[in-house]
User: Fold this.
Amino acid sequence: MKPLPWLKRSFEFNFPVEMFPAIMERVQSTPVRLEEFISTVAPALLVKKPEGKWSIQEHAGHLVDLDDLHEGRLEDFKKRKEILRPADMKNLRTEEAKHNEKDIGEVLRDFQSARQSFVTKILDFPDQDIARSGFHERLGKQMRIVDLAYFVAEHDDHHIAVMRWQLNLLKE
Assistant:
């Protein structure tokens, strides 16, 4: 089954902040899960672009690219900004990064490093601040720090699911 496009997803951030530890387990495990998945893919298939969309390797690179946005939103929370910074909906950074020209090991190492930086920064917030919120304009709703972690985990899982779906297409 083809995964639902990311921009068609909607989110309800109505779970208790005590879900934060479990959500962070997902966020922290993504680099390992991604590396495990990538290890099952023939190198030639990593850079193929099914249906003219991003390749598996470009999806992996996109996860690297987005951790800067996630960290920026943490900075917005720290500064108590009312509105969280928006994403570049054209994904120019990923489009211009030429991830397919890189070694996949480099992409995976970059993701591990970027994700570790994000995890360190989010875990630096005191427990009482995990419920702090700012407005996410595209979603049209308040987002707490715990919700940002959930959003990141969902985004990670979305891209890994798309990569698996693409791999199945490429193997047909």
